[in-house]
Amino acid sequence: MTKGRLVDGRSVTVEEQLLIFLDIVVHNNSMREVALKFRRGLFTVQRYFHKVLEAIVGLYPKYVNQTPYGELHERLQDPKYNAFKRC
Fold it and tell me: What is the widest separation between alpha-carbon atoms in the chain?
């Protein structure tokens, strides 16, 4: 099954790939701990962690809009508002 940029592996579904990624990122677990928890090989965990990471990074241009260079928010241009006061 395909869900966006991720594809089911031979024995690892897209949902499990995402769970592996989230377990490493959110709980700060090592890949070895996650491999034991999900009963997968260390190489399998590494492979799917990087696949999910690449899929998330691929979403960056679609959902993150940067302001054009040189264009500042009106509040930052106000001389009464010092954004870096007491830094």
Answer: 61
